[in-house]
Amino acid sequence: MPMGIFRVCLLVITAIVNHPLFFPKENGTVPENTEEIIQKMKEREESLRLEQLRLEQEIADQEATQKALEKATLVVEESKEEKVRWDMWTALSMVIFLLIELWRQDFQEGNWQDTGGEEDDMAVLGKAFKGVAFPNKAVLASFYEKRILGTTGDMARMREMVEGFADDLLEALRSVCNRDADMEVEDCMGVGSMYENWRVRKPFVCDLIVPFAPPEPYCFRCQTWCSGDSFPPDEQGYGTIKVCRADEDVTGCICDKTKLGEDMLCLLHSQVNTTRPSTEMEDLLCFKNTQYLDADQVMKWFQIAVTKAWNRISHKYEFDLSFSLLDSPGALKIKFKSGKSIAFNLTPVVQYENSDVYFISHFPRSSLAADVPSSTHWFLTFAVYERRFIHLVSKTLPANACHVSCLQILSFLHGKQCSFTGPSGLTNYHLKTVMLHLLQARPSQDWAPEKLEARLQDMLKFLEKCLHEKKLYHFFIGNGKVPAELGFPIIFQKAEPLNLFRPFVLRRDVYRKTVDTFHEMLRNMSALINEYTVHIPLAHTNGIRKESL
């Protein structure tokens, strides 16, 4: 303890002795040093203040930069959210569009041609049928028996005679043709109303198609409007036929499209194969300087070949044969010495792949038909499948079904009306298309013979509805309900439906004339039928109903 007190006292004494006030003279520089220190401290303070300001400015800049970054991040996030929302709306719109497209296709496949069987669908048709006296069952049955059956009984004999002569003529044609250079002609086939047993108006004309093929080593490569390449609307229903060598690549070789040069040689094709003189293609009935089959050239060749064939066999027959119509190159007429004549059409066609669809060189013209795009465009005919479909459906219908009777009566009425007022845009093919749609849409029992009156009304209603909408779709093209038993090519089933009334949209004058003719036919229907009907007892005639359809 005393030692600690001693140390404290020693420390105090040392501090007192060393205090500056005890030695003023020796420590006179202390105030000056103090001012320097104060000055340096002020300078230091000023530098610290400036450093503080700089740091505060940097902090402010960093905060501003941080805020800008946060704002930019927020904008980006908002844009991402907006993009996500936009993408969602886009995806939703695409889904809605696809649903609409699927619904449209389902509508076209399931209800792609409204059949007129529903009451609501017929509400559109009230005006044209108001005041029309529709013949009853007894009048229609009498008319059909007297006018239709009485004039169509000899069709079978006429078909047999024409087919036998056509076979003989084609056999002679093969004998006069050069098998190494000319087209190879196959056996003919009967199509159309004469072979479907519903033609009613004279003169009776048999329609025969004659498939032909090119000589070896050539072949036909066919392309249709629905094969993938874009075709204009006016070329729908048409196709082209390319004449190629059998060993030629379908897609074509680059040597045929590019100049290889004098010192280059294609390893796939020899020089003989790649050079095709224009005269060689013309000999194969192609359009000038192309490989596409020319319908006009084909018909000229066919007419010359038929003339040579007839000259070879004419001595066997006691009649004359001549081409009857200038605007229908395949129209032939047999003239007997008695003055009677038989007309028939013999038209060359090209088979589409391995089906019974055919490219036809010339098709019967009507006021509604548009001009053919060019002579290298061939119209497709489905006549063989139409005949098969009618035959197939007829097996499921009741005995003596009325479907053919309805078509015959409608064809007669329209033809008779056109003889009074002139031709219209409607053709017998349109009338047959109406029957085909109703055959597919209505149950089999609806075609019983006693329902002739109701089904005839349905056909008239359906036809007027199609005229009102300017839409009558081809029965086979785009129809997904074609029976599989027919073996119909799937490419045409998946194609867009082909509107046979599309020309009405473009030609309003023809449309107006067609509608007026149809309405006039409805008004004259009762008079036209009664003109060819035997006397019916009053009890039956009083049963004629006047319906507003």
Characterize the structure shown.
With 549 residues, the chain is of the alpha+beta class. It has a domain at 124-227 and 234-247 and 280-532: Beta Polymerase, domain 2 (2-Layer Sandwich), CATH 3.30.460.90. Helices cover 49% and strands 11% of the residues. The chain has helices spanning 2-17, 30-111, 126-129, 137-148, 155-176, 193-196, 271-274, 278-283, 295-313, 383-394, 403-421, 428-441, 452-469, 490-493, 502-506, 508-531, 538-541, and strands at 133-134, 184-185, 189-191, 205-213, 218-224, 238-245, 319-323, 331-336, 341-351, 358-360, 378-381, 545-546. Strands 2, 3, 4, 5, 6, 7, 8, 9, 10 and 11 form a ten-stranded mixed sheet that branches. Strands 1-12 form a two-stranded antiparallel ribbon. Helix 11 packs across helix 13 (452-469) and helix 12 (428-441) packs across helix 13 (452-469). The radius of gyration is 46 Å and the shape is elongated. The N and C termini lie far apart (138 Å). The model is unreliable at 23-31, 106-112, 114-126, 256-260, 267-278 and 535-549 (pLDDT under 50).
